């Protein structure tokens, strides 16, 4: 919980500073950067919170293993994808792929 609170506190300061940027283009660029990082942090901490706050009667070893694999392997593998979505070429290729399918 300490790390989540530290991230939320730091992002409140960041959002306060970003909201004071006068140009809309500058605000958009700053929010874009923050969004990709916050997405990765949310996925990582969300899986840990889901593991810790699930009902105890459903406590099984397979569930624990699933969550452990998710936050230790899947989230780090998703980070490059999340951060690359800020790139125009990647966005364009993804749009073409989705429309093609």
Q: Over the alpha carbons, how many angstroms does the gyration radius reach?
A: 17 Å
Number of domains as seen in the coordinates: 1
SS content category: mainly alpha
| Major sheet description | none
Globally, the shape reads flat
Report the strand count.
0
Low-confidence stretches: none
Strand content: under 5%
Mean pLDDT metric:
78
What is the CA-CA span between the terminal residues? 41 Å
Instruction: Tell me roughly what share of residues is in helical segments.
Output: over 70%
Pfam families: 7tm_4
Domain G-protein coupled receptors family 1 profile: 1-83
Subcellular location: Membrane
Transmembrane segments: 67-85
Describe the protein's architecture and organization.
With 101 residues, this protein is mainly alpha-helical. The protein has helices spanning 2-19, 24-52, 61-84, 88-100. Helix 1 packs antiparallel against helix 2 and helix 2 (24-52) runs antiparallel to helix 3. The termini are far apart. The relative contact order is 0.09.
Brief account:
The protein has 101 residues and is mainly α. It has helices at 2-19, 24-52, 61-84, 88-100.
Characteristic terms for this protein:
single chain, 101 residues, mainly alpha
